[in-house]
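Two entries, shown back to back:
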Amino acid sequence: YKYTVGQPYVYPKNSLSYTSNFMRMMFATPCEEFEPNDVLVRAMDRIFILHADHEQNASTSTVRLCGSSGTNPFAAIAAGVACLWGPAHGGANEAALNMLKEIGSVENIPAFVQGVKDKKYKLMGFGHRVYKNFDPRAKVMQKTCYEVLEQLGINDPLLHVAMELEKVALSDQYFIDRKLYPNIDFYSGITLRAMGFPTNMFT
């Protein structure tokens, strides 16, 4: 990330936790001292934990399959990262964020929902192959999202769209029958954007 924005690399400090160091190495500059924000560090901790491997997801399976050929760990992990890049896996939170941007405002939600039913649009950030009912991680991520936005004083219009879309989807029989409940990606994209991460880095 530092290379892409033309800034020098920031080396870690042993006095900081893993996540505090991660935030510092992302956002610090040599000309001033970086003070980790406890709320943002806690949010990043949750993101790391909640997005961690659960069962045989696509990237985990890819790493294991690649490693089974006897390749080196770097190659196996690189293969997993490449798999994670896809919009149906690691790119899901970016896809959900792009969907909210396309909806634009709360007033456009009814037309978008009808478009989903008519198979004109895809509903991103809803449903999960493992969590067949509600994604338990989504509740934690929703709370974390509110905490980050409040801490930073951000009034993100996309959050209003997300909240209304969630409300509509949870009360509409079409989505209930198909068990399309919000998943973690529905809120993590808004959270990461608020924290300063470019959307092309979400994966």
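entry 2 starts here
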Amino acid sequence: MLEILEEMGNMPAKPVISLIGAGGKTTCTMELARELAEQGKRVLLTTSTHMENPFLLGLRGILNGSAREICAMAQPGMVTAAGTSQTTGGKLSSLEPSVFQVVMKTYDAAVIEADGAKRHFFKVPASHEPVLFPQMTHILILAGMPALFHPLREVCFRFEEAEKLLQQENPVLTPELAGKLLEMSYVTPIRKQFPQAKMAVILNQCKEEIFQKRMADFVSVPVFLKEKFPGPENVYFHLIVLAAGFSRRFGSNKLLYEIQGKPMYEILLEKLQWVKEQMKEVKTVCVVSQYERIMEAASGRGFLTVKNENSILGLSSSVKAGLVAVRKAYNPKNSNPEKEAHYFCFFAADQPHMKQETILGFLQGFRRSRKGIGCMAWEKQRGNPVIFHEKYVDELLALEGDTGGREVLKRHPQDLFLCQVPDAQELKDYDYLREAEKLCP
């Protein structure tokens, strides 16, 4: 992303870059912010509308902070995410323009997601969009190239706006048509309002120069190609629930302790079923237990179940039992590492306050991070779930006693993705009955 800005020429000392359009804005926003930070800059990442909560994608930051608090977080070589919280949806909302103006006296660069597209690959904006701050130096208009050669109605957000411009019935989106729409709906009106800002179109997830050339004839700003991140074509997540402990300090099986009318284990199973339905990359949900009731409930949801006959040997026995069962189900000998990657995410069954949206955000953020290990965190406190790339399988299978995956995590800090949870309570697990009775009466 930074190469594109440099090709646009005359990079100012304090760039303020807005990303608009559709087809990968959040990913590109975070990538660009990190690249600027690698130059030693104090980088502010924010939105003028709404964006995925960047704390769930591994970034540090502050919600609902004052200008002074946001400025206090600025550090050279670091990205700080800042914005306001919504009551629903878990998204980050815009800073007040006045707060942004004050904050930019401290930060060296800002990267702003300034448009929304409801996960479409292409967009034609309404009259009130995008939302752009006057301090902008660069505007990058994204178009997701998986949208090409599909009926416009299927891939375009605000399709009704495109109809007004084209006055034709549901055409197929060709490079030429995409260029016309971007020029009419974004480039021309923005240039009139912000003549000082540099503008470019980015064809995201595209390496075909012919598409770039065909579109460039219809767009009056530079057109750049941006390929997908390198890596395997297919990514699979295997979620493994560890539910075989003895709950000795609790005094009884804590996983059967009822919270708001449901046993503790059932709360997590419901959330993981929702996550599996939301994310096609989740291939397996596996429950490791020594308790028939838990295994029957998991099996009833269509989950893979494994009975741990060696629970007395500690946590490592459940980790290994889950790994062996999952790998047997998909058989790694039949997989091609160049085309697919497998990740194993371990959950503790006694975290009833972990939200399903947090789990989903963790998996999505981990995938974007291109790291090999990930875990949840609240500030400096790390917790479950913990996730590992298959390259760490041998180390996990070598664990002994009451030791979990965190021992492997400690050996590879350079490969670690930390996902900040919105609330410390989400990491809470229960070892004692009195804790559960106090917080979950």
